[in-house]
Amino acid sequence: MRPETSIAVVGSGAAGIAAAVTAARAGWTTLLIDRRAAAGGTGGFSGLTTLCGLYDEQGGLLNDGFTREFVEALSDRAPVKMGKVWVLPYRQERFREVSSCFLAQMPNLQALWSVPLAHVVIESERIVSINGFKIGAVIDCSGCAEVAKAISADCLETDETTQAPAIVFPLRNVSRSLNTLPEVSQVLLPLARAGLPPPSQGCAIGHPPCRCAGL
């Protein structure tokens, strides 16, 4: 059995970074485990380029503490409004850099990369060890309930009555014919409903198939 650690965090995305750094700052010996080769999770590796859920209706940051620290380190850009919500544009490589920097500042935090969750030991209905480390508590930030699955705990499954989280991503250089009114409507109406601008100023009925900026 390896040395005891107070807090084990599984997953190093936004939630995992916040949990691990905050636990370490509170004085707990902290272990961070991730199956990826570096910190970042969905924010750093999935293709996302905006963060949502951070701002109120006026674009003011909702949270203080570690959230504000991370956001201010992540981007020097102001939030932008997409439809009815404010989002923060960012670069994925910067997300990974900032995540690694926060972790490196904590001497009582140990990170294990390219290590899947394994060897979960339960005693008296309590997890006491993972991957050979004796632990006081575990925080599952994997995004897919890895810890719960490892101990065969019941999880809420997404079905027709629930909705998975939305993912916002850019598409560019996609050809789309806009020769007829129905074709134009299929592109412009969803954008209008979302409060977004038209894809370009040059597209009009009768034009040949075009490549619209932003589509």
Architecture overview:
- The protein has 215 residues and is α/β, with parallel strands linked by helices.
- 27% of the residues lie in helices and 22% in strands.
- The chain has helices at 14-25, 41-45, 65-74, 92-104, 146-150, 181-193, and strands spanning 2-10, 30-33, 50-51, 80-82, 85-89, 109-112, 121-123, 126-130, 133-140, 175-176, 210-211.
- The protein has a 6-stranded mixed beta sheet. It has a 3-stranded antiparallel beta sheet with strand order 3-5-4, with no helix packed on it. It has a two-stranded antiparallel ribbon with strand order 10-11.
- Strand 8 (126-130) and strand 9 form a beta hairpin.
- The longest helix has 13 residues, at 92-104.
- The radius of gyration is 22 Å and the shape is elongated.
- Residues 201-215 have low confidence and may be disordered.
Give a quick set of tags describing it:
three-stranded antiparallel sheet; disordered C terminus; single chain; 11 strands; 215 residues; alpha/beta
Spatial strand order of the main sheet: 6-2-1-9-8-7
Shape, please?
elongated
Q: Kindly name the structural category.
A: alpha/beta
Beta-strand share of residues: 15-25%
Number of helical elements? 6
Strand element count: 11
The major beta sheet can be summarized as: 6 strands, mixed
Helix content: 25-40%
Residue-averaged pLDDT: 84
Rg from Cα: 22 Å
Unreliable parts:
201-215
- First CA to last CA: what distance? 54 Å
Order of helices and strands: EHEHEHEEHEEEEHEHE
